[in-house]
Amino acid sequence: MDKTLVAELARRAGLDKALAEFPEDVAAAAAQAANVAAKIKAPADPRAEPWPAMRAGEGL
Amino acid sequence: MNADADATQGRLHWTSVSEASHAIAAGDLSPVELMQAHLDRIERLDPRLNAFIQLDGDAALAAARVAEAEASAGRLRGPLHGIPVGIKDIIDVAGLPTTCHSRVLQDNLAESDAVCVSKLRQAGAIVVGKLSTHEFAIGGPSFDLPWPPARNPWNPDHHPGGSSSGSGSGVAAGLFPMALGTDTGGSVRNPASCCGIVGLKPTYGLVSRRGVFPLSFTLDHIGPMTRTVEDNALMLDCIAGHDPLDPGSAAVPRGHYAAALDRGARGLRVGFVRHFHEIDMPADPEVTAALEHVMRTLQMAGADVRDIHLPTLGEFAAVNRVILQSEAWSIHAPWLRERPGDYGKLARRRLMPGAFLGAGDYVLANKRRAEMIAGVNAALADVDVLLCASSMDPACRIDNSSDVERTYPRQARTPFNVTGHPALAMMSGLSSGGLPLSVQFVGRYFDEAMLFRVARAWEQASGVDRKHPPIG
C-alpha cells in the first residue's frame, strides 16, 4: 500500500492523531492488514455461508 | 507428593489444588497456613517475576482466616475451599482495578466479579490478586507500559509466553496453584507451553465471558491454568456453565470433567497433525523429538495413532488475525483515535490493522472459518483426539525484541480459536537449555473430559507434573 493511500485510509478511520504522532505504527498496521487479508483463500462457492450459521439456540 | 510432607519440608507452595482440597476437607491443612506459604513465596520471588499487577494479600489472608473458621465448623463452600487463585488482569474482580496492563485503563475499578471469578469464589477459592498480561491481551512483552512484563520462572531472562503471562509465570513458580487466563489466539496455551504447566482453552461458549474485557468477541475464551491435569479438570468443573447474559454462551449440560481422568490411553484413537510442525512451520528439533516421544508413549500405552491433515497453519493464522483485528478495532477505535499515545507500541501496532480491513475481508474470513470448522469436525469423526505442536520453539529471551517477533507467530494454537474446539497445552519435556517444551491435545466440542484423559495418560507416563523450575 502506498503512503498516500495509507494516509487516506487512516484519516477515513479517524486515525489523524495516530498518523501525526506514530506514522510508522500506522504504516505497519496497514501493511499487516494487507498481508493477512491476502492469505485467505476464497471458498470455491461464493454462496458459502459465513460462520456463525444461524442456528438459534444450538450454539456451535 | 502430599500436603503433609510438603508442609514439613516447607514446600507447601508445590501442593496441588486437589491435594490441598482433600487436606483442607480432612482438617489436615489450614487455609491460613496455605495462604501464608504462598504470600511468603510471592514476597520473595515476585520482584524477579513481575507476575502481579496488584497483590491483594491482606484481603486474601483475611479470607483465608474466614475459610479456616468455616472449615473448622465443618462448613466447606466447595471443592476449592481456601485455595489461592490468581486472576489475569483483563478479568473483573470486585473492588480491584482491571487495568488490562494498560495506561488506557489504569484507574478502571471493577464494581463486580466476572462470572468466572464469582463461580470460583462460590467454590471456595480465594483471589490473591491481579496478574500481568500483554496489554489488552494482545501487545506482547512490553517495556513502555506502567508495569513491567512478567518473566519466566525457568529462566527470568526468558519470555513466559502470553498474553496470560503472569498466570503462567505464577502457577509455574508456585506463587499460587491455579489461575485464570484468557485465550483469543493462544494466550492460555502459550504461557502454559513456555512455563511448563497445564493450560486449557475450553470449547467456545463453555465458560462465560461476562465481566472479561473483550479482545475479539467470537474468538475469546476463558481457561484454567494449573500445574496438574487433575487440577485443571477440577477448576473447569467450577467455572463451566451456561450464562444467558453472555451472547456466546452455549446452552449445553456441564460435563463432569474429571470423570474419565484415570482411564488411560488404551483404545484411544489419536490423530497426529504432523504437517503443522514438520511442513507448515518447521519446529526446533527438540520440540519435534519431544512430540515424537509423546506420540510413542501414547502408542505404547495402547493408543492407535494415525496421521491427520488439516488446513495450513498460515491460513488458520490469517483467518484468526482478520477476525481478531476487525473485532478488536470495533472495541478500541475510540481510544486509538483520541489517545493513541496511551497504548504501548506493540498493542498500538496490533490493534490498528482493523482500521485497514474491510467488511469483505471479515466476511470472507468467516466463510473460510466455517470450512475450517467442518474440516476439524471431519478429522475428529475418525479419531478421539488430535495431537499436535503448541509452540515451535522453547521460550526466547524477553529482552530480544526481534526474537520475540520471530518466535511469537511460530505456534499451532490459533486454529482452535478459529474453530472453537477445546485444546489443552502442557509440558512435553525440557530443552537442553532447561526450558519447557510443549504438546497440544485437541478434542471434539464439549468433550474436555477426553482431553483430560489423554493429557493425564501422558502426565502419568512422563512425570511432567513433578518438574518445577529451579527458582526459590
Brief overview, please?
The complex is a heterodimer of chains A (60) and B (472). Chain A has 60 residues and is mainly alpha-helical. Chain A is built from three helices and no strands.
Explain this structure:
The complex is a heterodimer of chains A (60) and B (472). By secondary structure, chain A is mainly α. Chain A has a domain of 36 residues. Chain A is 53% helix and 0% strand. The radius of gyration of chain A is 17 Å and the shape is elongated. Chain A starts with a helix and ends in a 22-residue tail after the last helix. In chain A, 25% of the residues are buried. The mean pLDDT of chain A is 89. With 472 residues, chain B is α/β, with parallel strands linked by helices. Chain B has a single domain, classed as Amidase signature (AS) enzymes, CATH 3.90.1300. Chain B contains 16 helices and 11 strands. Chain B has an 11-stranded mixed sheet, with helices on both faces. In chain B, α3 runs antiparallel to α4, α6 runs parallel beside α7 and α11 runs antiparallel to α13. The radius of gyration of chain B is 20 Å and the shape is globular. Chain B starts with a helix and ends in a 10-residue tail after the last helix. Classes of the chains: A mainly alpha (60), B alpha/beta (472). At the A-B interface, α1, α2 and α3 of A face α11, α12 and α13 of B.
SS element count, helices of chain A = 3
Kindly report how far apart the N and C termini of chain A lie.
37 Å
Oligomer status: heterodimer
- Which percent range fits the helix content of chain B? 40-55%
Give the CA-CA distance, first to last residue of chain B: 18 Å
Low-confidence stretches of chain B: none
Largest sheet of chain B: 11 strands, mixed
Query: The CATH topology of chain B is what?
Result: Amidase signature (AS) enzymes
> Most extensive interface, residues per chain?
A-B, 36 and 47 residues
Class by alpha and beta content of chain A = mainly alpha
Q: Roughly how many Å is the radius of gyration of chain B?
A: 20 Å
C-alpha geometry of chain A: elongated
Mean pLDDT rating of chain B: 96
Tell me the strand order in the biggest sheet of chain B.
1-3-2-4-6-5-10-11-9-7-8
Query: Per the principal axes of the C-alpha atoms, what is the gross shape of chain B?
Result: globular
Integer tally of domains of chain B: 1
CATH structural architecture of chain B: Alpha-Beta Complex
